[in-house]
Hints:
By secondary structure, this protein is α/β, with parallel strands linked by helices. Helices cover 30% and strands 16% of the residues. The chain has helices spanning 43-55, 74-82, 99-109, 123-130, 135-147, 172-178, 180-183, 207-217, 282-286, 292-307, 328-331, and strands spanning 11-15, 60-64, 89-94, 113-117, 152-157, 187-191, 222-224, 234-237, 245-248, 261-264, 269-271, 279-281. A twelve-stranded mixed beta sheet has the order 7-8-9-6-5-4-3-2-1-10-11-12. Helix 2 (74-82) runs parallel beside helix 3. The longest helix is centred in the C-terminal third of the chain and has 16 residues, at 292-307. It is globular. The chain starts with 10 loop residues before the first strand and ends with a helix.
Amino acid sequence: xxxxxxxxxxxxxxxxxxxxxxxxxxxxxxxxxxxxxxxxxxxxxxxxxxxxxxxxxxxxxxxxxxxxxxxxxxxxxxxxxxxxxxxxxxxxxxxxxxxxxxxxxxxxxxxxxxxxxxxxxxxxxxxxxxxxxxxxxxxxxxxxxxxxxxxxxxxxxxxxxxxxxxxxxxxxxxxxxxxxxxxxxxxxxxxxxxxxxxxxxxxxxxxxxxxxxxxxxxxxxxxxxxxxxxxxxxxxxxxxxxxxxxxxxxxxxxxxxxxxxxxxxxxxxxxxxxxxxxxxxxxxxxxxxxxxxxxxxxxxxxxxxxxxxxxxxxxxxxxxxxxxxxxxxxxxx
Length: 333
């Protein structure tokens, strides 16, 4: 369906848990409180929301967390979502720690793509950022996924991690990630840090600067006009590289005019824009003492009404207007 501004809303990001097995400093530092499990949607409830979404025109679903693979039944849910009439693609974003264990199950479930959140290929720096010495597992899982023929993207937040390195070398952290796209058909994307939750304390690095450094360091950088997915990344190719390099510039390259998404939190709250708390509590409808048919009708109506109130743009460039105070782990990545 279309929102009030004529944008086609066909993409839903679904968080299935707020739990994670890493403690990334900008997302889920130590001491964060968990949401009680009885407040988190069941897998069956998530599927019901997705079914209503499909009736409204949702065609693409991204499974997120927390870390979605810590949720028992994640692969079963993906299989269920793939069977919903109207749903064309189901992908997942993971930190990669458990990916190796679930790759075969994900493939059998019909997963259409895997996004791996990875900010560095330096083992010591990875441990500083995440609190875990798990880099080798992530890189091995990435290689396995590529070998299985699954589309893989690497997501890195645009933060000056070089200042965290013991050797203090400049440009090392992000350039090492680029090399993943040299040998494998992997898209490496840099994402501006969202100024909510713990992320407020990690100023984003300008993508204009990164692109300038990219062109200065690698000959033959060209704009890549191929379609790589359903999101707003702007892609470039580098001569000799098998994969592409993408930039998702939500703050300084505002792309709200083409926004096609809504978000479902693990607690069942449907959000139409990341920086505003506005939305609708679908869990209240799902758990109401009503016949199933009535629940479906009410939920579809509530989702439609929420989309018809979707704001024209985010306000991250004006922090005083932000009304969302939850962190990304609670909202969903």
